[in-house]
Design goal:
By secondary structure, the protein is of the alpha+beta class. It contains five helices and four strands, in the order βαββααβαα. It has helices at 27-44, 68-89, 93-98, 125-141, 156-160; strands at 10-16, 48-53, 57-63, 118-122.
Length: 182
Amino acid sequence: MFQVSRDTPAYFLTSVAHRRLPIFRTNAVKSIVCGALDDARKSSGAMILAYVIMPDHTHLLTDGKRSIADTLRFINGITAKKVIDYLKENNFESSLFKLRKQVGERNHKHSVFEHHPDAFLVTSESKLIEKVNYIHLNPVRAGLVEKPEDYLYSSFRLWRGHPVDEEPFLTDHKRIKWRPAA
């Protein structure tokens, strides 16, 4: 179980696509991202409490079991590798070209994410709920859907207790230990 506090914070993470390109526009790529999130969760032992995959960025709420840098390295590293592998396997050369960067010290030729993600420490239940609501309303604010439950690549339905049969990613939100109401 996870209980958010100053000693055990959660992280609100925003990772923006390279040059704000709509890399995650298609359901195929969003599904790959969901698989990568699951792999990252298993590899790192982190909990993913809430998420949304937008066309050009992702928002995640994770537990603070690891440092922010480690959490981002697992999540963004695995996600980037899987997305780039998918683009290569399916000969999406124009997409790969847009993701090209100058070859760095690790010999990476493509970049899926900007290298300065936003990370916000969440230390209270009220702030946790605020961030969950922000995540779930993001597709509505962006004009992608009218109601948050209509956006498939979001944890909104899970949090409301109404998942669809083919939920793309199952979060760890039920592992949150809430303080008793006063």
